[in-house]
Amino acid sequence: xxxxxxxxxxxxxxxxxxxxxxxxxxxxxxxxxxxxxxxxxxxxxxxxxxxxxxxxxxxxxxxxxxxxxxxxxxxxxxxxxxxxxxxxxxxxxxxxxxxxxxxxxxxxxxxxxxxxxxxxxxxxxxxxxxxxxxxxxxxxxxxxxxxxxxxxxxxxxxxxxxxxxxxxxxxxxxxxxxxxxxxxxxxxxxxxxxxxxxxxxxxxxxxxxxxxxxxxxxxxxxxxxxxxxxxxxxxxxxxxxxxxxxxxxxxxxxxxxxxxxxxxxxx
Length: 267
Fold this sequence. Notes:
Layout: E1 5-12, H1 24-32, E2 34-42, H2 48-51, H3 61-77, E3 80-84, E4 98-100, E5 103-106, E6 109-113, E7 116-120, H4 128-132, H5 134-160, H6 168-175, H7 177-196, E8 201-204, E9 211-215, E10 218-222, E11 231-235, E12 241-245, H8 246-263
Parallel strand pairs: 1-2, 2-3, 3-5, 7-8, 8-10
Antiparallel strand pairs: 1-11, 4-5, 6-7, 9-10, 11-12
Helix pairs in contact: 1-3
């Protein structure tokens, strides 16, 4: 039996349940391996944009299993769940704010932890495209879906070659100057808002780019996603934040398997 790793707080975002590109099994396996007091679902957990298209095959049993694991965490560990709405699960606007049992559904939230205040938001409200030009965002979503399809094909090839997962889509975005500029502006806008709210940091998602940075004393924390980077934010008992990357776990497990096969006595 593997011992679960304990984190006081875990933040995950941008799973996009209901789409074929969602790495649902991986994020579910991650949650099965941890204990936490507080789980923040920071937007775009469910992809309402895709589900509204009415393709019945998009929602699968593995997507339901994800929520079953969260329910077990609440029951067995007493985990508090904060669900922050995102632009793809904006159907929650009609419910937020609402609390029931151990779940809060909110539009944004302030996390107070270890003497610090963090403004928690999905981040789409600072994106003029998704906020004011939703039609353009949905048009861009088509191109992004194609990019993710390329990523899937490429990684299927790598898997057959025995190579680890590599986010081709992330690499392409990092080489596009406009995307890099957009990410920088996005971070600065969020940091400025956190400062105005008298917070020590901001926790967000939305742009599928896990990151940790400090801008003039304000922490910027982005939990990434479970479509491309397969990442999350985890907080230790001293209040320090780190980026969890699923690919690091795969590499570690692979090395353990190699070591076991090396030291196993011959039969």
